[in-house]
TrEMBL record:
Transmembrane segments: none annotated. Residues 5-35 form the Flagellar basal body rod protein N-terminal domain. Belongs to the flagella basal body rod proteins family. A flexible structure which links the flagellar filament to the drive apparatus in the basal body. NCBIfam families: FlgEFG_subfam. The keyword NAD does not apply. GO terms for cellular component: bacterial-type flagellum basal body; bacterial-type flagellum hook; cytosol. GO terms for biological process: bacterial-type flagellum-dependent swarming motility. It holds the Pfam family LlgE_F_G_D1. Its main location: other. The lineage of its organism: Bacteria, Bacillati, Bacillota, Bacilli, Bacillales. It comes from Exobacillus caeni. PANTHER family: FLAGELLAR HOOK PROTEIN FLGE, FLAGELLAR PROTEIN. Residues 87-176 form the Flagellar hook protein FlgE/F/G-like D1 domain. This is Flagellar hook protein FlgE.
């Protein structure tokens, strides 16, 4: 059987996967925190047609998808004016807790307060953070800076859900400020994996940590200011899908699929000619 026919089949499969990926990107063009994917190709094993002493005579056996990468470049910010809508300016993810106890990562900052004023995401998962307490000296008196402002400590040894005060705001450091006392009560937990493309997508703009994203799959969470990112309250990070780019890639994938299908029909015509030689 002609090798070109099998090469055409592998090409059609690869471009079908590319079309599937593009379709998913376009479907999520308005999804908060969505990160688009791209499909990469590689050639398959080549068959040697000639011996040693000359340049290799090789015939390729088609192509395959080498990877489907998630691109974590930032999406466009959208101002909402809602105090519980939060966006991370920088390379970091909010830490949330699944109802089954798993700790997950998300860029989707469209949070809300439940009946107990606990901060949750759109799927009902609790947003995680750290308790902040006044810093005390050896005599138990509050520690203040040169300007007389009280200092606070953040307990990073234990992640807790965030019980939001009645009147609050979230500052750029990711601290939940009680507007009645003008003091921070919680700090949002943020994680910045060394290889975010290694995270495992599980839907709802949420990710699961893996050993490919961080050594040993460790969350390595910290406060926003310690990681070096800024939290913008009243904003959302939207999808990073560019429709112009996706439609261009769709045309490329469609033509690639058509061209590979033409290889199959052409190979079939050649086989038909070979069969007709017996007449």
């Amino acid at each position: 059987m002609l090798k070109s026919m099998y090469s055409g089949v592998t090409g059609m499969r690869g471009f079908q996967t590319k079309l599937d990926t593009i379709g998913n990107n376009i479907a999520n063009v308005n999804t908060v925190g969505y990160k688009k994917s791209r499909v990469m190709f590689q050639d398959l094993l080549s068959q040697n047609m000639g011996g040693g002493g000359v340049n290799p005579k090789q015939v390729g056996l088609g192509s395959a998808n080498s990877s489907i990468d998630v691109l974590h470049n930032p999406g466009s910010p959208m101002a909402t004016g809602v105090s519980t809508d939060l966006a991370i300016d920088g390379k970091g993810f909010f830490l949330i807790k699944h109802t089954d106890g798993r700790e997950l990562l998300t860029k989707g900052g469209n949070f809300y307060l439940d009946q107990n004023r606990v901060l949750k995401n759109s799927q009902g998962f609790e947003v995680m953070g750290y308790k902040m307490d006044p810093q005390l000296d050896a005599n138990g008196n509050p520690v203040v800076d040169a300007a007389g402002n009280p200092q606070f400590t953040t307990d990073k040894t234990q992640r807790v859900n965030i019980d939001v005060p009645l009147n609050f705001t979230v500052n750029a450091k990711g601290q939940v400020i009680d507007l009645d006392t003008k003091q921070p009560v919680f700090a949002l937990a943020v994680s910045a994996p060394s290889n975010p493309s290694g995270l495992n997508k599980i839907g709802g703009s949420t990710y699961e940590m893996t050993a490919q994203a961080n050594p040993n799959g460790a969350l390595d969470d910290n406060t926003a200011d310690a990681i070096g990112v800024q939290i913008n309250s009243g904003q959302l990070e939207m999808s990073n899908v560019d429709l112009t780019e996706e439609f261009t890639e769709m045309i490329v994938a469609q033509r690639g699929f058509q061209a590979n299908s033409k290889i199959i029909t052409t190979s079939d015509e050649i086989l038909q000619e070979i069969v007709n030689l017996k007449r």
